[in-house]
Amino acid sequence: MKTKNILIIFLLGILFSGCDEELELNNPNSMTAVEYWADEEQAIAGINAAYNSLLIDGYYMRMTPALNDGRGDDFRGDTPWPDLMQISNFTILPTSGPIQWMWSAYYQQVFRVNQILERVPEIEMDEAVKERVIGQAYFLRGLAYFNLKNNFERVPLIISVAQSEEEYYPPTASEEAIWSQIISDFQEAQSRLPVDYANISGIDQGQVGRATKGAATGFLGKAYLYSEQWNLAATEFQKLIDGPEVNIYRLEDNYKHNFGPFNENNDESLFEVQFAGTDEVGGTVMNYGGEPSAAWMQVSSVGHTYAMDGYGYSDFLPTRWIYDKYKSEETVDGGIDPRLLVSIASYEPEANSTTVYNGTPWPHAEDAIYPRKYTHDGFGFDTESQGGVERSEINYRVMRYADILLMYAEALNEMGQTEDAYDYIQEVRDRANLPDLRETKPGLTQEQMREQIAHERALEFAIEGMRIHDIIRWGWLYDDAKLAELRAHDSEFDTWSPGKEYLPIPQSELDVNPNLEPNSAN
């Protein structure tokens, strides 16, 4: 079994209890929020609890990857669970449980972070540690709103702890205001966070998994890119490529290292969510969500949800389009793009790939294909989730350096520097042993380069939860020719209708908040 330096996430119900001024029902066995926030140890426990939100079902444990992947043209539904099928074909209802779980997970994190930003500045503690706690809080709030914006279109902005009854019913914010807040939060995080935690002093010294200056820089650049502020995006990406200070990342030599239980928190990873098996961190209760408990596990359900028939739920399958796309270009030595067999499990005698998991002969029809990314297939394991169903310990990589390179190429192209974009695309292609793009496709126009970048992103980031957001931000669903292509890639786009690319605002939220507006998917 692997060993890893993992950031242990504590579950602190005491942070989130309170009292009503008219009727006090305080639990004598726990602190209230007023009594908490007294010292450095409590500040660290508070930020750990904010990280914990990443580990529940609505966030990266399962639904954020699944509901994003399911809407892309590289994935299609293959499940008896109606919600996942309806997500995948853009017919999901606002009463869906998974939709509510996602919304709740993001706002749970926002709520926890807002307490930190309000209370921690007043604590007498090591100032450097305080600065890092506050920086992490800004990062996590920026990440939560980045997910809210890209999945739910328009949402309320809650940036302080509610102090009155009116504040319990926040209004829907404009898209401009949401992007402004996301950018501000990542800027604040960038200015406060260290490059890493290895060479600092304090209670958090050496802890892997915490947000860093590089992670904040990457997401700041991504927020600028998504809001089409190309020059600002390029500036941030260039810091990660050329420096100063945060140019510490590189592509892993082996693409496979980015998606399995080994080689986690590697040199390509800017930020990843830390999952772990019970043999590493304990736990007896599945961390789906609900009332915080010290007995929660820290396991992921992604592997078992995606794994092939006989090993997992097989709730989704890769589309034949993305499989064929991997085979559209040979490597320089005439082979198959190595990312294919990392991303997709398929029967490939010519690539000496005819087994699954720990050498089991291919157990399916020879033309069957299944997801492999984020499963244990190919890592020497006989089964999928270790120790029981849905108990994967594989970290979820939220941002990789490959994304920085391709986003920088995109920003350069949009700024009219198309020729310069080749260099950064080629870095990613070189790892896949693909030919020099300058030789195979010299002199691309800006529009042709857009198409090429879309092609490169599809292959590099298949089954990583990004494809639907690329499709949305590029406006493909509202371009007749592009929509026709998407429908050819994945017939689930046949049932898409305008606005349905987003997830609907949960009906339960609309029912209780009179100031909350439906979005285009409701």
From TrEMBL:
Localization, per the record, is: Cell outer membrane
Q: Which domain of life is it from?
A: Bacteria
Name a single GO cellular component. cell outer membrane
Sorted alphabetically, which CDD domains does this protein's record hold? SusD
Q: Which keywords does the record carry?
A: Cell outer membrane, Membrane, Signal
- All copies of domain RagB/SusD, residue ranges: 268-519
- List the transmembrane segments: none
For this protein, the record's Pfam families field holds: SusD-like_3, SusD_RagB
Domain SusD-like N-terminal span(s) in chain numbering: 94-225
Name of the molecule in the record: SusD/RagB family protein
Instruction: Give the species.
Output: Salegentibacter salinarum
Read off the lineage from the record.
Bacteria, Pseudomonadati, Bacteroidota, Flavobacteriia, Flavobacteriales
